[in-house]
From TrEMBL:
<keyword id="KW-0175">Coiled coil</keyword>
<protein>
    <submittedName>
        <fullName>Chibby 1, beta catenin antagonist</fullName>
    </submittedName>
</protein>
<feature type="coiled-coil region">
    <location>
        <begin position="65"/>
        <end position="99"/>
    </location>
</feature>
<dbReference type="Pfam" id="PF14645">
    <property type="entry name" value="Chibby"/>
</dbReference>
<feature type="region of interest" description="Disordered">
    <location>
        <begin position="1"/>
        <end position="24"/>
    </location>
</feature>
<dbReference type="InterPro" id="IPR028118">
    <property type="entry name" value="Chibby_fam"/>
</dbReference>
Length: 125
């Protein structure tokens, strides 16, 4: 026998109604499109007085005109390409300078060997 009376037994919750409260599911597709305006474009929003539209995986500002936003995106991509090309050219210049240094050192070593051979030949005479 329990110490404080009955054991804990919660009340059973009534099952939910399976039918939707909305009658939209009874409408055919064309009526739903007209009623709800399902012909939509890319997502858009307004933040701080600026309009933004989601295109090609990025948010583009429409405040300054659609073309300027796209132009800005194009210029950013071009800037990244040019920076990559610039880094590649800097690397090539560094490699060429290393090659030039190596060749110059080899030339000076050969020149010194020739001078040594000439001086040895003069001593023998």
């Amino acid at each position: 026998m329990p110490l404080f009376g009955n054991t804990f037994s919660p009340k059973k919750i009534p099952p939910r109604k399976s039918a939707s409260l909305s009658s939209l599911h009874t409408l055919d597709r064309s009526t739903r499109e007209i009623e709800l305006g399902l012909e939509y474009g890319p997502p858009a929003m307004n933040l701080g007085g600026q309009s933004w539209k989601f295109e090609d995986g990025q948010w583009i500002s429409e405040s300054g005109g659609n073309a300027s936003g796209r132009e800005l995106q194009r210029l950013k991509k071009r800037n990244v390409q040019l920076e990559e090309e610039n880094n590649l050219l800097k690397l090539k210049i560094e490699v060429l300078l290393d090659m030039l240094t190596e060749t110059t050192v080899e030339y000076h070593m050969i020149e010194k060997e020739v001078e040594d051979i000439k001086s040895q030949h003069r001593r023998k005479k």
